[in-house]
Each structure stands twice: as C-alpha cells, then as structure tokens.
Write a structure and sequence with these properties.
Blueprint: E1 2-7, H1 19-22, H2 27-40, E2 44-49, H3 53-63, E3 69-73, H4 82-89, E4 95-99, E5 121-124, H5 129-138
Helix pairs in contact: 3-4
The chain binds 1,3,4-trihydroxy-5-OXO-cyclohexanecarboxylic acid.
C-alpha cells in the first residue's frame, strides 16, 4: 500500500513551535517516525511538506492515480483553504486528516476544518502519534 503523507504550512519549523502543543519533534524526526511506523505496517509512505498552497494542491492532484491513501495535515490552511478542500474532495482513495494539536479545543478560528467532511478518518490532538494512528487506520487496525 502506497500512502502519501502531506504536511502543509509551517510544519517545516515544527521544532520551533510550542512543544506542549505540537510535541517538540523536528519535521525530520517526525518523518523518520512515520517511515518507521509505515514500514512495520507494510506500508510504503512518502512524506512531503511545503509552504506553498499551489504546490500542495499539485501534490494532491498527483495523488489521484498514484497512491492508495493520503494522510493530510494542512496546518492553518485546514481552517480556510477551499481550494485545498476542492482538490481533496476528488480523491477516490481514503483520506485521513491529522492535527498534532486538538484543534477543536483551541482558539475559535481553529475549530472549523475544511478537510473534516471529506476525510474518512480524523486524528486530533494525539501529537506525533496521531500519524501512527492514521497509518494503523489505513492498515485496517483501527475500528473503521
Ligand atoms: C495544526 C493545527 C493548525 O491550527 C495550525 O495552524 C498548524 C498545525 C496541528 O497539527 O495541530 O499549523 O494543523
């Protein structure tokens, strides 16, 4: 199973962001964990991050015919980018939305996600382990 893991705006500077909120790892460390978890679940993962919304959308388009599932943490775009939502909506494969922090219990503006109703599964507020749960869900190891 080929899984694309997309991290969006400001996730490249994860190690500088509030460790209580975001878990304290660098993006590199997070991606290494994701590759390790994927390997143990027999999943081939590819992690990508960008701060460019257009590039993020292009990567979603590339996923249409090329991967078996997508895991997405669109960062702040999650709260307002209808363009990203329109792109995600066309995926015919499972989509898991991950947020390191619990966006439903933070500032009002973070509570809404454009991704929520096009995702097959959501993992909020579990820190880096949220990506493991996303992979386990895709491997059929979480109650669907
Ligand atoms: C985030 C939550 C967003 O509100 C924020 O803008 C981020 C990270 C998370 O993983 O908790 O950049 O998506």
């Amino acid at each position: 199973m080929q899984v694309l893991v997309l991290n969006g705006a400001n996730l490249d500077v994860l190690s500088r962001r509030d460790p209580k909120m975001y878990g304290g790892l660098s993006l590199n460390e997070l991606e290494s964990r994701i590759y390790g978890w994927a390997h143990s679940l027999d999943i081939t993962a590819r992690c990508r991050q960008t701060n460019s919304e257009g590039e993020f959308i292009e990567w979603i388009h590339d996923a249409y015919d090329n991967v078996d599932a997508v895991i997405v943490n669109a960062g702040a775009w999650s709260h307002y980018s209808w363009a990203i939502r329109d792109a995600l909506e066309l995926l015919e494969v499972p989509l898991v939305e991950v947020h390191l922090s619990d966006i439903e219990n933070r500032e009002e503006w973070r509570r809404f996600s454009v991704v929520a109703d096009v995702a097959s599964h959501r993992v909020l507020g579990k820190g880096p382990d949220g990506y493991r749960e996303a992979l386990e869900y895709l491997a059929g190891k979480v109650d669907q």
